[in-house]
Amino acid sequence: MPDPASASDKDMNILFIMYDQLRFDYLSCAGHPHLDTPNFDRVAARGVRFTNAYVQSPICGASRMSFYTGRYTSSHGAQWNGFPLRVGEQTLGDHLRRIGMDCWLLGKTHMKADAEGMARLGLSPDSEIGARQAECGFDSWIRDDGLWGEGPDGFYDEKRSPYNEYLKSKGYPSENPWSDFANAGIDENGDIASGWMFKNADKPANIREEDSETPWLTQRAIEFIDQAKGRWCAHVSFIKPHWPYIVPAPYHAMYGANHVPQAVRSDVEREDPQPVYGAYMENKIAQAFQREDVRQKVIPAYMGLIKQCDDQLGVLLDHLEATGRMDSTMIVLTSDHGDYLGDHWLGEKDLFHDPSVKIPMIIYDPRGEADATRGTTCDVLVESIDLAATFVEFAGGRVPDHIIEGRSLLPWLEGRTPEWRDFAISEYDYSATPQAVKLGVEPRDARLFMVFDGRFKLIHAEGGFRPMLFDLQEDPQEFHDLAKGTAHAAEIDRLYGYLAQWGRRLSQRVTRSEDDIKTMRGRSGRKGILPFLVDGSEVPEELTEKIRGTAPKRYVGG
Amino acid sequence: MPDPASASDKDMNILFIMYDQLRFDYLSCAGHPHLDTPNFDRVAARGVRFTNAYVQSPICGASRMSFYTGRYTSSHGAQWNGFPLRVGEQTLGDHLRRIGMDCWLLGKTHMKADAEGMARLGLSPDSEIGARQAECGFDSWIRDDGLWGEGPDGFYDEKRSPYNEYLKSKGYPSENPWSDFANAGIDENGDIASGWMFKNADKPANIREEDSETPWLTQRAIEFIDQAKGRWCAHVSFIKPHWPYIVPAPYHAMYGANHVPQAVRSDVEREDPQPVYGAYMENKIAQAFQREDVRQKVIPAYMGLIKQCDDQLGVLLDHLEATGRMDSTMIVLTSDHGDYLGDHWLGEKDLFHDPSVKIPMIIYDPRGEADATRGTTCDVLVESIDLAATFVEFAGGRVPDHIIEGRSLLPWLEGRTPEWRDFAISEYDYSATPQAVKLGVEPRDARLFMVFDGRFKLIHAEGGFRPMLFDLQEDPQEFHDLAKGTAHAAEIDRLYGYLAQWGRRLSQRVTRSEDDIKTMRGRSGRKGILPFLVDGSEVPEELTEKIRGTAPKRYVGG
């Protein structure tokens, strides 16, 4: 039923913008010392910036499936990149279309279709239902996952690349211009200098800036918005600032070594590290980011990519303003996870230190109800699954809380203070990684869980490894693993209690809502199920009328 | 891949016989003092009787969905009667057909189709795929759930009843002969004496014995077996000895008050009972079974129903022997849960005392590998979900342990002693019951969990109620709730640790097997994903060949 404080009666839309691997703290509104992002700040100034937002998993695919289903990774099951989302799992598209809002995809999802499950149910990928199943519930305006790497075993992503086709149409002479131009420079010999190699990160990508990935998708978004009819949610999902770390001119030259923050790491972290953390510290990307020369080449490129994202966000915002859409469009800016960039001796994401698991989360809500909170920050514990609930409520629906495990953020946007969660959960499944091989862990045991209560962060590891504990109040840099000692046993027990409570959560009773169940209560008696009658006097006559019948023929003696 | 010790290369079949609400201890092989069940004993003498077998939920629907999926109720989500099994959830039928064994249903499943989910995926119930989805993965030979009660709001079960149609074809003059004849006697005035009323339990059902439910389904089973081609699993699922408690002559007169065991109950149980238990003790059926006159009328009828089941089992076994099928047919005898019959001041099932949650589990394995264990008992902790795994392995398949959570019992049948579980879990969702209303519990909090380690049984209740603890070694009758005191805090903590471990289990990663994941390990590098290269020297040249390319046209200065 529509919520009066919702957008149901207006023609409100949702622009759900996701960046890939954007750290929470690489924005000027989040306090970055050198990076100026006036357009992110512009949305923050008109909305709310949530300063404690966490992803359900610090890895693209699993995290995105949680954004799109509103469910924890252990609930939807697509717990790592390339693990298909099981057929029938409901998504934003299912929930929003049910209440009259279209749900479109532009860009990346990292969704892998459950081809086996679809075949088992006879769903053709060509059918509308099959196509939505294969695209994570979205109608696909243009999908490009933006990772067109190719090796001896072929392409990482075997789908077609609309972006590569665009580049070819623009005359870039290559079978894979994404690899040869958009993500490569030119070396001193005039040869391709691949963006996969950090030594090339300071070179300009050999592509016209307007043809690079971020402007390309921004233009597709503008085209979508200009033609869109009815109420829509558009997931505009950029691949950048995700690696390969290389950016076209002029962004390649905007930042230098003098803008690279010191790595947040301490020798104490390398003393007898928890084994899974230790294995990650020794992997190739961690070893690369432990080199200062690498950080000084890569981070300026990463900053340049973010600066380009900010400029293109400006283009999009200007277009919304010019076309009078700012008062009818909710704008969300977030990311699927962060990037260690050498912090904690690590590269990439994967683990649960804030640079990896904490994300930017800025929401502009155009409704008058949200005027009171414009330009403020909110430090409650937000989980990425909260967006699905927020969108459903914003679109005028009632959150199906037997399916969506997140909670609507609208109350916070309206300046109210609802009862809220005591802890946030994040999970990481490293079963397919070299670290699992190195540690000799079976796939089912290669799983990590984070429990964060706003101050203490516990990391539990299956497979018999010890946990980790950080006190972010006393040790905001997360250097000191308090689980090594015994002094914090009580905190560890308390957080394990939260994890156990979460483990008992109701996550699969998805075919009956709380209201359905309340309606069922006691109904069976009125449908003739009376297993408690001694002589019938226990219940009103109407319940037994049908079983009293009339005089029957006698079939047996007795 | 086929297991040499399996039936894959022979023409082995599975006869999976389930009784409804049959207590584990109402068989002579299980030590019942008055009930003689030579045919159950006959299977036990040729197979293994598992003496510690537990259902995943002591309620028909949820328990059966666990038998059929091999998954805990919190994993498949159909946690109570009438909660549909979500579309796409895999069942025995999916797993067995995949390895060349048909999977047929004869009788009751209590399955409710996920009509909304099927519609969402465009599955027609008329299609083969749709029909299997609607029948819990079985091909339906004949389905009859055997509860044709009718009240002011209509029938409890709105499907057609093949059994009622059979009775009508036999000339029983009624629109609902199940209610008016099969489950009713005749009173002193010649009127219908409904089996719903316990006062009528000692009357003979007004039906020819051969037309009553158990013989009727037994004949359908024989018809099925005689025509079956190829390898099959047949789920022959009887409604009896489930209520209504009334049985045709001569069974109605075989047992009397002198054969009724004393109720296993103690006044100490009524002193400050755990609140959920307390609410159940006060419900209508409990109050009825607290009356000795009710027990003395109902239990002889219940015993008569079991005796009839045993005689009909004899008919079926004789037919298998006469047709030479005993050496090619695995026979399983079990039940979906027990029946309190007044024990612990309760009627029906629902809670976790042994009379409710423990089941008979007798398995005859015709293979020579099982000769060593014939006529033995096995006291390891068995869960009902183990049957699905057992059947897949018996049929020559490899158990898909990323989907099926149970474990194959074949090693035990072969006299081996595999590493085994430390605890059994059972769950009960009472969200739709009057007890939840009485206790003022929201649907999501009306859930109970049992953890049993073979000696201590912990019952955890969501919703803030205190737990219960029983020591079955010191208190086999489960009278003394040790959670009331503080003396057993350590045991309670230990069992809560098991529950927490279970809560973190891997249950939804169903689209990737353990082997799939091992195959994925490290593969992305060979598909062009190289986010760790400083200069390329880190990896063999073949990995970087595709990104080195050839001299490109210069698009931008740098």
UniProtKB/TrEMBL annotation, chains A, B:
One of its GO terms (molecular function) is sulfuric ester hydrolase activity. The keyword Hydrolase applies. The keyword Hydrolase applies. Residues 13-396 form the Sulfatase N-terminal domain. It comes from the Bacteria. Keywords: Hydrolase, Metal-binding. One of its GO terms (cellular component) is cytoplasm. Pfam families: Sulfatase. This is Arylsulfatase A.
